[in-house]
Amino acid sequence: MTPMAERPATKLAYRPDIDGLRAVSVLAVIGYHAFPAVFPGGFFGVDVFFVISGFLISSLIFGQLQRSTFSLGDFYRRRIRRILPALIIVLAACLAFGWYALLPEEYGYLGRQVAAAAAFVSNFALWTETGYFAPATQLKPLLHLWSLGIEEQFYLLWPLLLLLLSRRRLATGWVIALFTGGSFAWDLLLVRHHPTAAFYFPLSRFWELGLGCFMAWLSCGSPGRPPPMRAWGAAVASLLSVAGLSMILVAVFCCNSHSGVPGWPSLLPTLGALCIVAQPGKSGFQRRILAYPPLVFVGLISYPLYLWHWPILSFAAILHSGTPNLLTRWACVVLGFGLAILTYRLIEKPIRAGGHWRPLSPALLGSLVVAGLAGLTVFHAAGFGHRFDRQVAAIRPQAKTDPLCEETVDTHIPFNYCKRTSEQPPDVVFLGDSQTEAVYEGAAAALGKSYSLMMLARGGCPPTLNASVQGLYPSESAQQNCNKTWNEFVEYVQKARPRLVVLVGAGTRFFDANSPKDASAKRAAFKRGMENLLGALQATSRVVYVREIPEFQSSPSCYLRPFRLPGTRCSAFLARGALELHRSAYSTALEEVKDRFPSLVLVDPIPALCNSRYCSEQLQSGEMLYRDEIHLTQAGGRRVAKGTGLLQLIRDTIDYPG
Question: What percentage of the chain exceeds 70 in pLDDT?
Answer without folding.
Answer: 94
